[in-house]
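Thread: Newbie trying to understand structure tokens

Hi all, I'm a second-year student working on a class project, and my supervisor (Dr. K.) asked me to get a predicted structure for one chain before our next meeting. I've only ever worked with sequences, so writing a 3D structure as a token string is new to me. If someone could post the tokens and maybe explain what I'm looking at, I'd be very grateful. Here's the chain:
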Amino acid sequence: MRLWTKRLLLLSRKKSFSFLNLVTLSEERTLMVLAVVVGLSSGVSAFVFKHMIDGVYHFCCETGTSTDIFSGHWYRVFLPAIGGLLGGLLIYYFAREAKGHGVPEAIFSLRRRGGRGRPRVVFVKSVASAFTIGTGGSAGTEGPIIQIGAAVGSSIGQLFNVTPAYLKTLAAAGAAGGMAAVFNAPIAAVIFAMEVLLRDFTTQAFSMVVFSSVIASVTSHVLLGNNTFLPTPSFGIQHPAELGLYFLMGLILAPLSTLFIKILMRTEEFFDEIKGIPDPIKPMIGGLCVGLIGLFVPRILGAGYFEVTDVLSPDKDPLTWGVGFLAILVFGKMIATSISLGSGGSGGILMPSLFIGAMMGSLFGTLAHGIFPNIAPTGAYALVGMGLVFSAVASAPVTAIVMMFEITQDYRIVLPLMFAVTVSMLMCRQMGEVGLYARVLLKRGVNLAGGDVHDPVMTVSAKEVMVKNVEIVWENMSVEKLTQIIDQSHHTGFPVVNAQGELTGMVTYVEIHKAYQDHLDLKTTLIGQIMRKNMPLSFLDDVLVDVVRLMQEHKTDRISVVESDNPKRLVGLITRANIMAAYQPSFKRSE
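---
Reply by user tm_fold:
Sure, no problem. This is what the structure looks like when written as tokens:
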């Protein structure tokens, strides 16, 4: 199939091929057609993803909104744990890059892998996120659909063998298409792709992203109906003095957003530092904690769409909730989201950010109404609060302003929103806050603020330094034979395989020395009896910093590299010497 598509592109560039010239007269038109295909595919993916979440939710909780998700059924406390376990197992065994918020992973793929991603991410991210969100996990849909859309665009680009530069653009176009379909905000999706993901404002890149976003939005309208993401009444400034309140609101919500980011980052570090629990079990534990919190505050469960709609709706006055309950929702959502995602659950951070901003804005508006009864309704402050927290968490002020405008479709909200967002972003900069995505990516060697970190362990992958022609030994080989091999070889350790060629362990001179100390008969003792079975494994796309961490944790100087979908198939070996070679000036990264 790949050969056929490659020939198609080659033929499309030949002037003599009249029929294909009508369809793809040039490379530029070919790419625009691909952008349309990416947008259509992203829109369909968003439609399927939404119905997957709805299906899981209705299967677990027959009726009702997230407000009454438990409905007196105590067993539903365990639903987020079950969703976390199922999602964690899928991610661990099929696509580990599907773990996380979605957006940082998409940016990392664009920066470090040239936009190249595996098609299976589309399925794994969709199902894992549906399990997490549909069972009540506190996470949003936009982060996953951005990563899903990027994977769709990358897969289509790889299928047609486009150049690396165009592959990145198609991946960003897919991400924009997914966001446009979910938020029903095609303009904001384009701005987000250019401002956060691609950071390439060339005419061709912009055109491809626009094509994809528009087609995905139209596809979403056809499949889901012409519904706005968050139906809102018209809000605006009723008195010029309100700008003072919006200024104060920007000052207050900036440190609140920073607090949310720090809680989430610290929760992720906490779960990463737990070594005795398998990775798929961690999101189950996180889900159980979220379920227990939801038992007392059920409105913090799920994405929070219904609650935000209530805050913005004039028919459901949130003033009746009370200031205390609004504060509980703000901090409860922070904690629940941090646990859901920090423990390894799959979901996005943007909708929880909108939830926190809406509740905090409503709280601020409630207090302001008590002092100044004639100011704008609470919903106006809720909308501005959504834009404030969104812009601070994503570090995307332009996207936040445009998206709030598209949600409301009312220009009057833009003025207070622009003013408050500017104040909030300046406050965040004064506090040294760079946004959640920048923090996550900095740990992986990508510096969005000022170029990339050039430490090889932060940027080079396992497949770029590993030894491919690995010397192996068999588990039914005697230890005496192994000593002879070590004497004749410059290696001090070897991966061990069974009769079927499957990786089963690792053996080094340390195990041989222990056999000597235990006075074992080296002629009759087999390697399979002394080898290390509980060994660390690395995957092809793992960054070297993760490999080094595994070496330190397991006190070893070599790690086997295996296929991500088949951990028993050995494809390479990494030693400390291979890692040090990445620091040599002569080291060349593989494409």
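A couple of things are worth pointing out once you decode it. Residues 1-25, 63-71 have pLDDT under 50 and may be disordered. The longest strand covers residues 566-575. Feel free to ask follow-ups in this thread.
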